[in-house]
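Structure first, sequence second, as always.
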């Protein structure tokens, strides 16, 4: 009787173990981990992308697992990461796919090694645990390219290049110094130019009334043309006054210039009587108004 009890107990234990193994195997078959690299032979200045994909039956809540750790590498380093998740239906079953991508850049020429990435997971409905791992990858890394300054020129050629560069630098410095030493004359405004010409007219023609007003008329016209971009050549004084109306300038100055033009126009053709002191006083008045 005792032997029968022991026999039945062994059978029950075997059945329980078989059921547990069946559940574990089924859970493992419902989740997979794969890895791949987009290149196995790269230049030193290039990069390789490791893609790790976790795929399982069910929605996103079917399995629990931590975010995958950064891959352990030799002669390579992680330069960037990204991840995504998607789902689809196949043969009436929902499938969830979680993808991790790692951009790896070389740190040394030779063979780069990417160690297996391990995934520890928990099957949520029955708390079954498991572990999956990708395979190891190897990437051939070429030697770095020579930089622009890493040339194979002989030593005397390098010295000649250095001397030529020094000569260029010295020439540029000399040119800059010479430019700075050249005195730059300040720009003369139309008003300043007018006052200079007025002083010349006063000095040269203070005793010749007709010539004074003839020259005064001319330098007033030149001032208006230069300061307000007008073309008054061949126009009468009346037309000049009409051209002055819309100009933006102080009202007093505009009125005075109109008066001086009319007086000069009259005096240069039929000079009136007056003393040289009148001409000097008029020139002084014009100078004072222009300087205000």
């Amino acid at each position: 009787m005792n032997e029968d009890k022991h026999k039945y107990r062994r059978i029950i234990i075997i059945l329980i173990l078989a059921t547990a193994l069946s559940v574990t195997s089924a859970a493992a078959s419902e989740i997979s981990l794969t890895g791949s690299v987009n290149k196995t032979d790269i230049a030193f200045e290039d990069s390789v992308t490791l893609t790790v994909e976790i795929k399982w039956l069910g929605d996103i809540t079917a399995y629990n697992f931590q975010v995958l750790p950064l891959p352990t590498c030799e002669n390579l380093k992680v330069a960037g990461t990204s991840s995504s998740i998607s789902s689809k239906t196949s043969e009436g079953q929902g499938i969830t796919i979680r993808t991790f991508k790692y951009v790896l850049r070389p740190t040394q020429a030779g063979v780069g090694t990417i160690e297996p990435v391990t995934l520890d997971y928990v099957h949520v409905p029955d708390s079954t645990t498991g572990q999956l791992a990708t395979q190891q990858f190897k990437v051939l890394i070429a030697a770095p390219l020579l930089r622009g300054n890493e040339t194979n020129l002989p030593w005397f050629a390098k010295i000649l290049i250095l001397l030529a560069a020094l000569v260029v630098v010295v020439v540029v410095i000399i040119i800059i110094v010479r430019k700075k030493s050249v005195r730059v004359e300040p720009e003369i405004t139309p008003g300043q130019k007018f006052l200079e010409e007025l002083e010349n007219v006063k000095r040269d023609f203070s005793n010749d009334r007709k010539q004074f007003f003839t020259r005064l008329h001319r330098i007033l016209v030149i001032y208006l043309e230069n300061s307000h971009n007008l073309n008054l050549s061949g126009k009468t004084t009346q037309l000049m006054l009409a051209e002055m109306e819309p100009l933006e300038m102080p009202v007093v100055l505009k009125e005075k210039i109109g008066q001086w033009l009319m007086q000069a126009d009259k005096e240069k053709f039929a000079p009136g009587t007056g003393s040289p002191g009148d001409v000097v006083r008029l020139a002084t008045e014009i100078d004072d108004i222009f300087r205000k």
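Margin note: The CA atoms of residues 217 and 264 lie 6 Å apart.
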